[in-house]
Amino acid sequence: MALFDRTRKTVVAMAHIGALPGSPLYNADGGVDRLIEGVMRDVEQLQSGGVDAIMFGNENDRPYELTAAVESVAAMTAVVAAVKPSLTVPFGVNFLWDPYATVAIAAATGASFAREIFTGVFASDMGLWAPNAAKALRLRRSLACPDLKLLFNVNAEFASSLDSRSIALRAKSAVFSSLADVIVVSGPITGQPVEMSNLVSVREALPDTPVLANTGVTIDNVDEVFRYADGCVIGTHFKLDGNTWNAVDGTRVKRFMEKLRHLDHAA
């Protein structure tokens, strides 16, 4: 299946890797093997539930940093490489919140897509946030992965944009000047819904560019979200009890994907 081509809704499910080496919550006793085992269980549940793609992320590396630690990048690359042979769907990566580490891991593992904050200036929990899209795209080229799709998050979680332009104009500019392949629109914090007015305005500004809802999509709001979005990224809703830090609940995944099939038929 071609991802992000606007011909059908795409559900990208998060596979949250446990805290990586170098982060405060890392479990040194379990080591990287334990991280692989944990994410393998989640991947099995997600694929059995019928998701379209899986994205590996380091959401457990709280508190987050803007520049990745080398030991964490090495460990995440090892985890994704170990899980890759079991994948039956396309996959992507996101190292929070470092776009260059994200692109590097994607290139090393053969990912199909990568999500990050590539543009803008933000005041955030991590301090002043000012990524360099030109550097990230030049890295993609130098690593010889031109087909790697870059998902630009234009309103970061845990942060507020210092740009006075509307989110629609920022999104349109990201496509025009920074060559974004896909635009993702987020809520204020992981697991919280996207502001529908933001999603609508971005959709109207970019009628020909894939636009995804990046946070807070659930079985209860997906029909409204999909009136405007070409798909979504889901992590929290697929977890046991809807808790971001729990393991994936295969029943929740299957129930959600079954509802999507009914929505497709209704359309």
Structure, explained:
By secondary structure, the protein is α/β, with parallel strands linked by helices. The chain has a single domain (10-266), classed as Aldolase class I (TIM Barrel, Alpha-Beta Barrel), CATH 3.20.20.70. Helix content is 36%, strand content 17%. It has helices at 31-49, 70-83, 99-109, 133-142, 167-178, 196-205, 222-225, 250-266, and strands at residues 10-16, 53-57, 91-94, 113-116, 122-124, 127-129, 149-153, 159-161, 182-185, 211-213, 231-234. The strands form 2 sheets. The protein has an 8-stranded parallel barrel, surrounded by 4 helices. Strands 6-5-8 form a 3-stranded antiparallel beta sheet, with no helix packed on it. Helix 1 (31-49) links the parallel strand 1 and strand 2. The longest helix is centred in the first third of the chain and has 19 residues, at 31-49. The protein is globular and about 50 Å long. The chain starts with 9 loop residues before the first strand and ends with a helix. The model has no long low-confidence stretch (mean pLDDT 96).
